[in-house]
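Purpose: get a first structural picture of the assembly so the mutagenesis plan has something to point at.
Setup: two entries, given in the order below. No constraints added.
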Amino acid sequence: MTELRGGDRGWDELRAQLREWRAAIDRILPSWWGRGVAVLAIVIGIVLPFAFSSNSGFIDATIKALSLAVMSLGLNIVVGFAGLLDLGYVAFFALGAYSLGWFGSDFFFKAHVHVGVAGVAATETGIHLNFLLILVAAAVICAIAGTIIGLPTLRLRGDYIAIVTLAFGEIIGEVAVNGTDIHLGGGMTLTAGNLGISAVDLPYFPGIGHFNLLELRPWYWLILAILFLVLFVNVRLRDSRLGRAWIALREDEVAAVSMGIPLVKTKLQAYAIGAAFGGMSGAFIGAYFTTVNASQFQFGFSVLILSMVIIGGIGSIWGAVVGGLLLGYINYWLLPDVLNNAPSKIGLNFQLTSVQFGIYGFLLVLVMVLRPQGLIPERRRKLEMTGAIAPEAGDSELAEPVPEMNIGAVE
Amino acid sequence: MLRTYVGRWGLIVLLAALPAFYVVRDLTHGYQAGFVHGHAVVAHDLSRIGLNVVQGLANGAIWALIAIGYTLVYGIIELINFAHGDVFMIGSFVAVGLWGTLGIGLSTGTAGIIGGLILTLIIAMAVTGALNVLIERVAYRPLRNAPKLAPLITAVGFSFILQNVGLLWRGGSPQSVDDLINQGNTVFNISGVAIQRGYILAVGTMIPLVIGLGWFISNTRMGRAMRATAQDPEAARLMGINVNQTISLTFLLGGMLAGAAGLIYALYQTNIWYFQGFKAGLIAFTAAVMGGIGNVRGAVLGGLIIGIIQSFSDNRLAGGEWTEAVVFGYLILIMVLRPRGLIGEETREAG
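Result (structure tokens, whole complex):
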């Protein structure tokens, strides 16, 4: 224990040194620097695919990582802003993906609905909506589902919310697997179970034409646009009245309610908005994978998204993006493409992709124990986490923790 | 007014509804008891219900042992130990691994099997108890003063780590285990309900362990320390109780019971796989919540009730593939109707 604390003190000194340097750099840079970097990042983001071939594996991984970052931003609203630990986020991935499966394929083959589609999709049976409409539908369906899932948790706190959301996620996963038994009449079923709805429409936009899987750049720009949209909404929400109400509820529910914050409405809005983003990303992932398969909707996915939020820094928007991209790249590029055969090179008989959830688990434990505030911590959360954990210098086992004083010491 | 009424009776009505429905149905409509000369024999008695209940109790005995681990840990540090189900899984794997090492198989004699099972039970309990203590030491203790989200997240992390240990150990698909005790053999009949060896094993292991645990908690010095710590850790510390040691002891006890459950599960279900712990953990947690979390008797009661619900769902309601959804549906209804459970106290979380 004592060595650990000594180590912490060393780190604190290093951090203080880094802070000083950063302040010094900030003084030198002109005032437009921050905005300039943001614009530069956006421009680099937009032109990035030109540096790679149109169907490169790296762009493929980037597209998947970006879609996970969108999910991570959505979950961050529920877990980070409102402080409601949601372990069933996979439900919204499932519902978003099924929105695509239901409204963008010939799955409901008795129906003949065509809105804003062209080519084969305009003549096939089934419901075929334009991809933008599907995104909207996914967002709406998930917002409603998020509200319904939120309702039973309103009276509960903390761990109990986690369990109820987890139960809902598992139930929706179960319905997806067994949906072949739920008949809607005319031989149509609710889902295609583990076989999957595999003939989903490729996104089509008038003037651009159909997307295809050999030319990945349009997919990249589409998900980048969704990410920017979600990011924008996130930033605006955080600074809004609603965002501050969420944070107030997170910090102290009783105090917030007695200050006049409507508990039910505020919490349900967090669930609904967070779910809507998950649904949009889910519909995109469904389209990009060209299948909506019940076996995708496992508890592990919820944990993957939660890991992104936590590793990035709970409640931090940029943390959620960085965490999402980081784990997305680890998941879709580093583990399968780069390191997958590493264990066999040192004589072990397994592939890294088979233990990827163990690796996330390990990362979760590591981040929580070593850096509980995440990679890019939200300022408020940082104070809370470090203030409560790092004992003051010379603090003994018996000393009463004095949070306020610790917070003062950290800043 | 209505709310207290629904809170008090809603859950009980809900739990009684399923068996009551099938009792009435079996008595009035009857059920197909078998075939004689190609004709279906329809019986109008309660022996099918009896079988469902007995099977449920046997399943429930396993869930009860796991649920006690959840409830003990929650009672003392208010943490849902997500990794607990996977500790149970490791218990199964250790037991089956030991049978392989010790050479206990279908050809071993009765005395050898009984001796070997007792030995493996002790070792499996020791291993899972130690594992649980280790997890607490590594993943929860450093976060004792952190926000409550933090240890919950490390618990989820450890759950995944253990699952992948299991995955690497025995592969990704369920493996069958030697049916060492011929668990399907009928020992005796109670008015048409065949009591099989597996049922006796499950219930017969659970009862002494639970009685022993109850005795330990209520009569020993360490048990008293546990109760005191659960009530108020700070006051307990001021009274000279070593709180960290007491918490470790709690994890040790919970882990040992999970190990015992793991061995029974392997014998009774005769198959094991790395994912069994996740499902079992969720079911057992539901049981602990149903009984009233923090309450050992509640966990046992909840485990048995969940076992019966599961057995009804498997055999009567919708078929095995929907069972999980049924159990989780019950979990959500409990949370809505009576978050403190059947015989639990009000907790701060469930309010």
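Chain A has a mean pLDDT of 83.
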